[in-house]
């Protein structure tokens, strides 16, 4: 999106109220839908599982929502800087912001994922989780933490889109992800009886689907608008952080499986 596109949308010329509402409404709905993941998990678990699972999801979703708010706050700076550069007609500067944001969020993803997986017992104790719900809470939080990559990637790319004046595409993708989350929750929790772990897995898979669409489909569009954004940086950073996240998730599930077998 260049200056002409911004002018046509009404951001640089004419009354601002209508285009502002057109931009802000999808943004507000996107934030609401991201919070909706935990609500859907809680409703489905409450319908098909016991009180321990309900407590686990209630506490775990609060923890993950706090992380989402943290990541969203970081993306606001990206949105402002990209919007400022694009509004000034400096596409190269906007590209450099996007390139730096990918590098920063790759680091943030690794730090948050490793930190959450390691500190889950301490966080669970600090949240005063009922003793009978502690094991499921830890499983829920750790499985969701393995999907932090998708939270950072979605919000990071969405921040760039919004800086370009497009808040609709991120909203549509997160809407699809929420619908997928509902279906997967019913399958994993209702049909397969996986309780809180199933709800967490459904959330991570839905977030991953949302991020895959947001990365794969508009990537060439973003690069055409932001020539300063390094293709090598994007093509390496996203798979690298994905592999780290996947390795941590598989490692945790392997340890959990062996521990459960030893306890039998």
From TrEMBL:
Q: How does it sit in the membrane?
A: Multi-pass membrane protein
Q: Name one GO molecular function term.
A: antiporter activity
Q: Which GO terms describe its cellular component?
A: plasma membrane
* Signal peptide segment: none
The alphabetized UniProt keywords are: Cell membrane, Membrane, Transmembrane, Transmembrane helix, Transport
Give TM regions.
Answer: 12-29, 36-57, 63-83, 104-127, 139-157, 169-192, 198-219, 231-255
Where is this protein localized, as stated in its record?
Answer: Cell membrane
The molecule here is called: Polysaccharide biosynthesis C-terminal domain-containing protein
Task: Specify the species.
Answer: Candidatus Allofournierella merdipullorum
């Amino acid at each position: 999106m260049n200056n002409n596109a911004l002018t046509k949308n009404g951001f640089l010329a004419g009354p601002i109220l209508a285009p502002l509402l057109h931009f802000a409404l999808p943004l507000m709905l996107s934030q609401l839908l991201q919070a909706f993941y935990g609500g859907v998990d809680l409703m489905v678990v409450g319908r098909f599982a016991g009180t321990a699972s309900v407590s686990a999801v209630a506490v775990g979703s609060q923890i993950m929502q706090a992380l989402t708010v943290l990541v969203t706050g970081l993306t606001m700076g990206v949105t402002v800087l990209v919007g400022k550069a694009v509004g000034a007609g400096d596409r190269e500067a906007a590209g450099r912001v996007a390139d730096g944001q990918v590098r920063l969020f790759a680091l943030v993803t690794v730090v948050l994922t490793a930190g959450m997986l390691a500190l889950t017992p301490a966080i669970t104790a600090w949240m005063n989780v009922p003793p009978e719900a502690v094991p499921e809470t830890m499983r829920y939080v750790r499985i969701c933490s393995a999907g932090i990559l998708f939270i950072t990637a979605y919000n990071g790319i969405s921040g760039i889109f919004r800086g370009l004046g497009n808040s609709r595409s991120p909203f549509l993708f997160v809407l699809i992800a929420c619908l997928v989350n509902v279906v997967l929750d019913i399958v994993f929790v209702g049909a397969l009886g996986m309780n809180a772990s199933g709800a967490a897995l459904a959330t991570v898979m839905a977030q991953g689907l949302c991020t895959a669409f947001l990365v794969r489909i508009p990537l060439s569009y973003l690069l055409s608008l932001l020539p300063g954004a390094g293709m090598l940086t994007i093509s390496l950073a996203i798979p690298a952080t994905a592999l780290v996240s996947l390795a941590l998730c598989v490692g945790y599930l392997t340890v959990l499986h062996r521990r459960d077998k030893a306890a039998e």
